[in-house]
């Protein structure tokens, strides 16, 4: 299905949670000198103009990154994340927002590998054009799970896989579980960061339960709910299920999300950070 365009949603509250988690994981991997690989399954266009027709039509970024733009963060992860967005907006006006592959490119060293797949015929050339001069980079116009077969395991041992399908079809939940199991068999030492929307709570819990039942160990759930469940807001929140998380991740995200909650949340907003499966 090729109707989804992230340009309508760039910088919203779900992006904030997803990219904070991504930044925390990448910073942990960067502590060691040896190179690692970042693999992005649904990479999108990479960079988004918040002045575009798409972004202005929904204005979702106003409830996410815009509320944090002038915030003086205390959390190191939140500071790092906001600093990366500010790199793309040097005049201190919020005009551009980075997608996950752009965030990775800003953080990775020259020796680190970057891999991404994007199926949309409009977004793919936009994505690829941003990385033409970068070494150790592979951008493919193929299905995310075909990408696992073609590109995993990478040449380096360490790394992270970010999985964030649009979930427009009900089959995408099971497709992700199947794809995750395939990827994990190919590259079990990697960290897997799986984004999911909170729209219908029973569907979310069934999805999480399926991943827990997969037999894959060391799972951490991070979830930020802007609204109470079933409050008529559509996507009321979102989460990240992280497999093989850095041991620092839970503490770092608890601190970061406490601050995010103070800036974009309400009395109905909640945060949960829960270990699901032990090592």
Automatic annotation (TrEMBL):
GO MF annotation terms: methyltransferase activity
Annotated residues for binding of S-adenosyl-L-methionine: 19, 42, 100, 118, 143-144, 164
Known EC number: 2.1.1.266
A Pfam family assignment: RsmJ
InterPro entries in the record: RlmJ, SAM-dependent_MTases_sf
Annotated site residues (Interaction with substrate rRNA) in this chain: 4
Keywords for the protein's UniProt record, in alphabetical order: Methyltransferase, RNA-binding, rRNA processing, S-adenosyl-L-methionine, Transferase
Biological-process GO terms, alphabetical: methylation
Catalytic activity: adenosine(2030) in 23S rRNA + S-adenosyl-L-methionine = N(6)-methyladenosine(2030) in 23S rRNA + S-adenosyl-L-homocysteine + H(+)
Active site positions, chain numbering: 164
PANTHER family: RIBOSOMAL RNA LARGE SUBUNIT METHYLTRANSFERASE J
Protein task: Specifically methylates the adenine in position 2030 of 23S rRNA.
UniProt xrefs under HAMAP family: 23SrRNA_methyltr_J (MF_00934)
Assembly information from the UniProt record: Monomer.
Similarity remark: Belongs to the RlmJ family.
Protein name in the entry: Ribosomal RNA large subunit methyltransferase J
Organism, scientific name: Alishewanella tabrizica
